[in-house]
């Protein structure tokens, strides 16, 4: 966990706290140098880059995605006989009003993915999965959280800039805040392995049911926990990409996340960034809410074996980034950030 708070002199104080084990089997304790998977917090970063491109006149929020990926890029994205493939807009893929389903909530996707454990997903495959599933509603008329939209945003970033998404995020977001230990998988991976990631309860039982995991069960079982990272990680490190691929140390995530709302995106684009759709409290890749009576901009993340959350409280100029290498039965990571914000708010009272 990393916390940033003002020093009263125009600067920021950074504190990193670790607890628990990076690997239970090896009895290794966590350290500030450990890399965690921060999952969907990536979406906020990807949205910020798109908004920078909007500011530069290279992308328009309400333009169809086909403007950048070409007519027919999502041919067959059909609901009730209407093909919405060329009608979905940039804004809709950022605020989850595009109609796409979420592969992380689809049991069939896990079965498919487990059958190709050493074959990474290409972004186009993830998009094709979403197109094949079809719109879950008429795009623009409802909200449904999904990762496909932000994978599409990554393709738009690459098309417009002519660079890899990893390179763009590094140049525009990571380097300006010295986030040297942040990486966008699978394009670039950390020089050291991530900590082991664990699940328990129903998720543990679900992994036990996947035929391709049978050969790993004995090694993966650690008491009530199941180490999902003993199996090949090519799929979980590739499917999310610009919608969920960030691997980093907690302090890097905190610095990046704070910068998104203080320096990386400004002016009219910041207003757009923080404006929810009519269908939810989710804006363009960021949730708008409150914790302990404080307004917060936040995003959670969850990939097999990891849960995370990052938040920025603008009125206090406080940033919190937390990741756990366990998807617990209860409490969830949000309960931890709730408790942290109560302590912080009390300290400022």
TrEMBL record:
Q: Which Pfam families match?
A: Beta-lactamase
Using the record's annotation, list all stretches that form the Beta-lactamase-related domain.
Answer: 20-325
* The protein's name: Unannotated protein
* InterPro entries according to UniProt: AmpC-like (IPR050491), Beta-lactam-related (IPR001466), Beta-lactam/transpept-like (IPR012338)
PANTHER family given for it? D-ALANYL-D-ALANINE CARBOXYPEPTIDASE, D-ALANYL-D-ALANINE-CARBOXYPEPTIDASE/ENDOPEPTIDASE AMPH
């Amino acid at each position: 966990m990393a916390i940033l708070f003002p020093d009263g002199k125009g600067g920021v104080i950074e504190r990193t706290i670790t607890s628990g084990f990076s690997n239970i089997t090896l009895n290794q304790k966590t350290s500030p140098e450990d890399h965690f998977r921060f999952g969907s917090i990536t979406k906020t970063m990807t949205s910020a880059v798109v908004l920078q491109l909007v500011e530069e006149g290279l992308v328009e929020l309400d333009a169809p995605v086909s403007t950048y990926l070409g007519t027919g890029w999502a041919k067959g994205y059909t609901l009730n006989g209407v093909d919405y493939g060329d009608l979905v807009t940039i804004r809709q893929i950022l605020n989850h009003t595009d109609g796409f389903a979420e592969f992380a909530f689809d049991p069939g996707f896990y079965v498919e993915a487990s059958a190709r454990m050493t074959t990474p997903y290409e972004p186009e495959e993830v998009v094709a999965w979403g197109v094949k599933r079809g719109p879950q509603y008429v795009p623009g008329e409802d909200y449904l959280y999904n990762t496909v939209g932000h994978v599409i945003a990554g393709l738009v970033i690459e098309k417009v800039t002519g660079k890899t998404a990893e390179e763009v995020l590094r140049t525009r977001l990571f380097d300006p805040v010295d986030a040297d230990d942040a990486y966008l998988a699978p394009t670039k991976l950390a020089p050291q392995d991530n900590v082991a990631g664990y699940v328990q309860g129903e998720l543990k039982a679900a992994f036990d049911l996947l035929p391709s995991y049978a050969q790993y069960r004995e090694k993966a079982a650690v008491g009530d926990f199941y180490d999902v990272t003993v199996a090949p990680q090519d799929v979980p490190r590739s499917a999310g990409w610009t919608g969920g691929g960030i691997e980093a140390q907690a302090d890097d995530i905190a610095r990046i996340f704070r910068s998104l709302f203080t320096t990386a995106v400004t002016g009219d684009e910041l207003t757009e960034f923080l404006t929810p759709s009519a269908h939810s409290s989710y804006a363009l890749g960021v949730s708008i809410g409150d914790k302990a009576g404080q307004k917060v901009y936040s995003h959670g993340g969850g990939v097999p074996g990891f849960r995370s959350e990052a938040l920025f409280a603008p009125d206090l100029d406080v940033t919190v980034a937390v990741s756990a290498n366990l998807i617990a039965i209860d409490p969830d990571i949000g309960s931890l950030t709730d408790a942290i914000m109560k302590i912080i708010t009390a300290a400022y009272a």
